[in-house]
Amino acid sequence: MVYGNVLHALLQAALEQHDFSTQNLRFHTDRILIDNIESLYFLREELNTAGAYVESKVPLLQEWANIFISSKPNAKATVKDHRGKESPIIAINKLLDIEERIWSPLYGLKGNIDATVQAIVIEPKAGRSSSGSSEKTLTVPLELKTGRSEAMEHRAQTMLYTLLMSDRYDINVSGGLLYYLETNEMIRVPAIRNELRELIIKRNHVASFILSRESLPHMLQDPHACSRCYAKISCFVCHKLLEDGDANSSGVHETFQDETSHLNEKHKAFFKHWDTLLSKEEKDTVKLRRELWSMTSPEREAAGRCFGKLVIVPEFIAVDQSNPKINRYTYSFRKAAPPADFSFLESQINEGDPVVVSDEKGHIALAIGYVFQISKTEITLQVDRRLHNARRRQKDFDEESHQVFDGIELPATYQCEPHSSPHVTETILFRIDRDEFSNGMAKIRNNLIQLMSKEAGKHRRLIVDLETPEFKEHPAAYQLDCVSTLNEDQKRAINTVMSARDYALVLGMPGTGKTTTLSHIIRALVSQGKSVLLTSYTHTAVDNILLKMKDEKFGVLRLGNRSKVPLTPRKSIRPYRC
Ligand code: SF4
User: Where is the DUF83 domain (predicted)?
Assistant: First the structure.
């Protein structure tokens, strides 16, 4: 999985720069491995070993690029066709997007496409169209698979991506490409109507369970499939705790027993209780998110949760190349035709809020990000995706045979296209919606499931079984100046924390000095050479504590979105990184 992510990122970086040279691939390998250092650490994998493994795949990537990335297909660039048809040859001649995230309310699907590419496809003689032409330029999804074996789910995923892309690009996407790195094989996955229909029926079947939340689909009871399933822990835990299932009903006897025999009635009650609460909360937030496609922008704007009919201000587009993901692009928007009394300052959308950018034609979530600045006449966002020139058709575009769009471009500062540019010019109207569900419940629900897994023994005993935490007889030695300024309760709280073997809770009414006590606990822990993770429900609470320590010598690494962190702690705390 980790290596899969690294190789995906490597291919995407090389595609984006159109540079598969050894030097460039090495440069990105080093960078990407550092980005994945935590995952490698968990795998106990040394950087050198990881580097050597990734480097062993570089010749494969280069060979693939030599064959398939070109302005015209060459004879070697054949792709396998599953229907047993003669193989076409192709050339990928343009990159349209990387990790394109598409939400399609039309099909009830969403996905992230490894690469959206433009490809010239030359069919063998038998596949020629009635006009006799054998060459087409098509816009297609390209998926990289780092495993060796072809799998049905890869084909299903690629096929569903053709639906997503059809919805996003307003064209018929007739197929996708699957690239298997290990075998260096390219496969064409045609979008076959009947198969897509079956997949959508399956999707609707699963969605009906998620929506009702009353039950889950029956387990497959297939020992072979279940023992290899990536979701088996979650599936087994839910079967046992939500459905009162057992080894017999699971159909995978020993494996099920092995993963769930530690779970008892108390765990069941705890799990059901929190799962119900999460579902209730989820229902409310999902309802709000649905407004993105079920309400027009004027309707939602009237409720203060949206700005509609906006245009990008071209002079204020900026791309931060060093920022690979969120916040990469900065855009300012104005109302296309602002009413006389309009002000961006009068809504429920504030600086630092998470937002979703869509267009007024129903293309949802073209980018997500945060509000950076708001003035009366303009709103500036930092977002993760390119909005300018995206999905812009070129003049010789043809829906059937010449699906040509503008390619990816990453200028430091965007220059307006000259009037003579070969594009169909059209002003795109955008809408900005407050993202009511940016964090989602999936992570929280997954944490709940992981708490019930075999591996989480100690945490489960402390949190679910309420095992009494242990304390040392005396607190570990620590250094604190100005202890004299603390009252007895605060000193006792610090000593309790410094004696904890498991955890300690400090409770206090508002104004009793909890923030001060916490800042001293952090100082005491740092004096022992420890790193401290400070976390809270709100950014403000974290920053209030940090401000209490602004004169300390130790460094602070503030995690979180820059636009969420007020300027005061950023300026006051040194050294400080955000
Ligand atoms: S473990 Fe569960 S989710 Fe995975 S294949 Fe079996 S039944 Fe399906």
Answer: 135-236
